[in-house]
Design a protein that fits this description.
Its main location: cytoplasm. This protein is of the alpha+beta class and 169 residues long. The protein has two domains: 37 residues; 116 residues, Head domain of nucleotide exchange factor GrpE (Nucleotide Exchange Factor Grpe, Chain A, domain 2, Roll), CATH 2.30.22. It is 55% helix and 20% strand. The strands form two sheets. A three-stranded antiparallel beta sheet has the order 1-4-5. It has a three-stranded mixed beta sheet with strand order 2-6-3, with no helix packed on it. Helix 2 packs antiparallel against helix 3. The N and C termini lie far apart (101 Å).
Length: 169
């Protein structure tokens, strides 16, 4: 009689275990879908921003070269630029800060190197060539920069000696 009871209890326990596993799988799937949906919402504007941000950068650059002759026009454009910047900030867009920073391959793209004999400047940004932007925590447009590269005086002398040797071709 005990064997019969064990056989009827075991399938019930087996079904209960299967149900608990299925329920846990469903809950995990629901959580994963919620995370993915939040991620999609968070970065849905990324493509649009990649198109708009170069226009914003060009507008900023044009204001740097504007003359002060038409002051009212200049003030109007500066106001529009400020509004543009505020809207971007509300949406989580930040400009990558490069000035005085060590080169960061995650937010910057090195376009060229500037040789320096000052070792403390090695791998620091020499100049920003175009602005970069992040959306939340992701880089959507890397900043294009020139980066200092340390070259020792001995290496510079050796390089000059090699450059001054005649070609033996």
């Amino acid at each position: 009689m005990d064997k019969k009871k064990d056989k009827t209890i075991n399938p019930a326990i087996d079904w209960q275990n299967k149900y608990q596993r299925a329920l846990a799988d469903y809950q995990n799937l629901s959580k994963q879908q919620a995370r993915e949906q939040l991620e999609l919402i968070k970065y849905a504007t990324s493509s649009l921003l990649q198109d708009l941000l170069p226009v914003y950068s060009h507008l900023k650059l044009s204001l740097q070269h504007a003359s002060a002759e038409d002051n009212s026009w200049l003030q109007g454009v500066q106001y529009v630029l400020k509004q543009f910047k505020d809207v971007l900030a509300v949406r989580g867009v930040q400009e990558v800060i490069t000035e005085g920073q060590v080169f960061n391959h995650q937010t910057m793209e090195a376009v060229n190197e500037v040789m320096t004999s000052n070792q403390s400047l090695d791998h620091q940004v020499a100049k920003e060539l175009s602005a970069g932007y992040t959306l939340q925590d992701r880089t959507i447009i890397p900043a294009k920069v020139s980066v200092y590269k340390y070259i020792s005086e001995q290496a510079e002398i050796d390089s000059n000696v090699v450059d001054s040797l005649p070609n033996n071709n």
